[in-house]
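Put briefly, the fold is written as integer tokens. One such record reads:
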Amino acid sequence: MLRDFSVSSGEMVERAHRLMSAASNRYRIVEQVSRRAKRCRFEDDEKGDPSLMKPVIRAVLEMSDELTEPEILGHDLN
């Protein structure tokens, strides 16, 4: 299966770094990313149309967007 990543690896590293820097507890943020990725994977499986982006990458991108746009943040990262 061919995976298409719309984000460069450098941007991905920068977003992950910002996400980790904003968290007061690194273990907890990793756990949240893991849960979000698992949910993304299950959502793709339920639709029957797998996303072109890996669930972990999609989770980090979504969470970093929530960090930069706090009005869409459903829960705090701390």
About this structure: Residues 23 and 78 are 5 Å apart (CA to CA). Residues 27-69 form one domain.
